[in-house]
From TrEMBL, chains A, B, C, D:
InterPro entries: Beta-lactam/transpept-like, Glutaminase. HAMAP family: Glutaminase. This is Glutaminase. The keyword Hydrolase applies.
């Protein structure tokens, strides 16, 4: 069980890394974040959450939302309905590449690259009458924080800059692997990404990944087998084109977002969230990864 | 701790899958194997080995040898000397692709695709006076079986059919990432691949991966940190372009070979080897994967 | 100067090829065409037009319209304004590939693949208040046929099936190489493609390519140098991924459309149009190419 | 018919471009050439040769030799034997790319990229007992210069740096499209490339391309149809990935070499050779292209 002192150490030790990464700047709303933020929170298997640094300050969760989307899809669809439309393999390409989508005839490699997450968003849109509201309700529920909101400015701003994601969606549509209206689905997708949560919210939300599918409130969100499978996908594909390095250094299933957050879990043990806005070359939080590495080394814990 | 009955069940349950895969046939020596072989062996953390099916019958370990090669390289080189020349990321391409090697200017994605294993073989060749003998000695030592041998017919046959691997080696040489004589290194590489071992030999050999780097005989082969890192690489890149599916279904770090063998480990718990010559579309043993899946489900064990 | 008998021979000689190609079927309006049509028309440098087969029957000109679009762009823009946004090289990929557009950061290889033609359509949209009307006026003028029309059913049908072209346009937009509203430009683009013309109309329209830029009516549409350049682009990139084979067999600059039409010119000598709806593997009219080959051999004329 | 004054003008006018390109430096023997050389020679259809600048100074013909190789192959093989093994299409990739060779399963796009020229060299090796001697004899014969030689230092130096070409050859061998011993064929190939000729020699040698297949000495080297086809291939694929730009600016079939030479022809009219060692980004002589452009504009001649 980690102590607060260990989390504080993690924050202090990585502080010299500030300045070595780059804040995501493709939309103004993200570019304006204070680059010096450092935060970590851990929710242990007993349900207690501790944190250090700016762990109560909300940030844009961005692609971390892809974990929530896939989880909702697992609740709405049979396994085959999902995996016939999106693969389970690491991509070997950058997160927003079209090359692979074209070569593999419209089937994205996994649900955590943009193409795959758009297919999942398309699935949600098809089965839910108000997917944005349902997503918000769900995340409020599993985090236990009923005040969570979308950041409409970020969502709008991303939509305005969405040409590449539109290209990906239309390309999949041309192969028959995207059914909804592209603009409608993109709007939902960017809302999911724009949610603002702090590290404590996120480590609590992801508790079910460490707890065989049961949330902090004791609800069985997905089955134990689905939880194991979801963790496996996060381990191989959760960190974009840096999944191998992350497994090598940190050794936990995880998911990053360009807002600088990363969630990670040690099944049966704890869920963790770190935040630091500066990103490395693969688009993953630079100091965030280092905090996770430090904690994992100090605890002598990893899945390997 | 698995019982022999569980292993026998695994063998029996997957038998109906025989006939659904394809034996590797690019060289006659491999094509001639009896396709109906099924075998499994487990070495538990207490050091005992049990098996079922044809687990005492030797087969061609092929790419499983890449685990041994990388382990030897870790003994001979500093971390940086290795990872500056080969990456740690899943490839997203088939195991013998040149496309990625060209696009990424001669640096292979990971040490378990052919290109990466050739770089590792090049590293071994540069530091060892008789790499083939040293490899054989090492594997005899860690398996505890001093009668292990290369299959010279297989090694020669692979060398005769080595045009694509030669192309990969020359392409890396053109980028300055291959130093030795291509033919010499290829000969060593194919010898490593041609080693004949049975499932018991292999599960015993891989015991160090489950045992924080210590072999069955109690020798610290690599450090606990290196062991964790090696397992992480196996989890993300050990099954060619089927690593995600394997993690999803089996949930263990593993390495497959086109001879139909797969080794897998649950760190702190056990090392396993399965064998069945017919391969799936990704080149991994079809029934072998199913045996691992069965065992993992029955034991309720995985790393996730 | 070709005689009508030669043209009739061409039609007769290629008739046995009917049935060997495939009519474009991605939209119903094209799929319904009679596959057995064969037509050829030649406009000689003296201004006379002769024809054989179904040369007075109109068909969907499809990508042949890309010659008209580029010509209009040359009238509206400085050279640099065009060639900074689209290249002049053969693509080496199929006509609707996104791979190259992504790898070359949004700049299409040439104005005759879909991506390039969409950039040209974007240029026209930016400078013309009613591009569809202006295009129609222009083609009516240079063909001398004031009754030419768009086929609204075809245009609408293509727009409904335009996901891949939308993907290409959005991808270019993501790289800053597409300025207009994607749907608006697509609608114009599909109108241009939907024009119905017969072989006589088309050979007359393309007369300026054989006549140093002057139309049949004696108007200098583009300069002699521009004409030479346009012919050069047609020779290297006008036949999709079959430009080399076409040059080898036919030896004229040309442009094909999936409606089965092909226009070709021998500068200083004649413009030709052939039509036969069945396409070869590269999407070029199979019997149409053979008619051109026959005429070129019989006349002993080519640009080489 | 061009006058000497025109050629002298061409040399003078392009002199300011010196310094804007880069001499090929991958082997010392090429890097040491004086970068300020400028030369042009023209052989008119009447058989007279005139020149300006350093047109009597020999240089390394490099890839221009690919025209001679293909011509010899046309003498030794049926059409199908050649074109079943190498394509006729522009590549859309750089001259020494492996990507396309892998994607297209070992069949090079055309005989003028390295992969294609290696297949042609493999064909020559299979049918000729002493291909290097036969090539030298042939080029001496058609140039009328019996003192031409290979530059053994260049040939050896290229062979020492041949890893990428070896990779290409082995890759084709892995697909069954390369029969000879790789090293033996590479040695022949580099000898062909190492031939030293001056602009006068080269324009005389290429006279058959302008003269319906007949050499200066009146020998029918290839048929008129083959000549037309060869010119067509040169027009679409002779300038690496700059064929479109070359056609646009110069408007002649041509072939370049990294030694800075370019040959070009106007069928029925003249063959030309220019030389200037500095290359543009596509590997074609920068000032050489400009000289051809000037001559073509001044004469008002091109194939378009």
């Amino acid at each position: 069980m980690p102590e607060i002192a260990l989390l504080q150490d993690a924050v202090d030790i990585v502080r010299p890394l500030l300045g070595q990464g780059k804040v995501a700047n493709y939309i103004p709303a993200l570019a304006e974040v204070n680059p010096n933020k450092l935060a970590i929170a851990v929710t242990s298997i007993d349900g207690t959450t501790i944190g250090a640094g700016d762990y109560l300050e909300p940030f844009s969760i961005q692609s971390i939302s892809k974990v929530f989307s896939l989880t909702m899809a697992l609740n709405l669809y049979q396994e085959d309905e999902i995996w016939s439309r999106v693969g389970k393999e690491p991509s070997g390409h950058s997160f927003n590449s079209l090359v692979q989508v074209e070569l593999e005839r419209g089937k994205p490699r996994n649900p955590f690259i943009n193409a795959g997450a758009l297919v999942i968003a398309d699935l949600l849109q098809a089965r839910l009458s108000a997917p944005k509201h349902r997503m918000l309700d769900k995340v409020r529920e599993i985090s236990g924080n009923s005040s969570l909101c979308y950041d409409k400015v970020v969502a709008h701003s991303e939509y305005q800059a969405s040409a590449r994601n539109a290209a990906i969606a239309y390309l999949m549509k041309s192969f028959g692997n995207f059914n909804g209206d592209v603009n409608t689905v993109l709007k939902s997708y960017f809302h999911y990404c724009s949610m603002r949560m702090n590290c404590a919210d996120l480590s609590r939300s992801m508790f079910y990944l460490a707890n065989r599918g049961k949330t902090l409130a004791g609800k069985q969100l997905i089955t134990p087998v689905q939880t194991r499978q979801l963790n496996a996908l996060l381990a191989t594909s959760g960190l974009y084109d840096g999944a191998g390095e992350f497994a090598y250094r940190v050794g936990m299933p995880g998911k990053s977002g360009v807002g600088g957050g990363i969630i990670a879990v040690i099944p049966g043990d704890m869920s963790i969230c770190v935040w630091s806005p500066e990103l490395d070359n693969n688009g993953n939080s630079l100091a965030g990864t280092a905090m996770l590495e430090h904690v994992c080394q100090q605890l002598g814990r990893s899945i390997f």
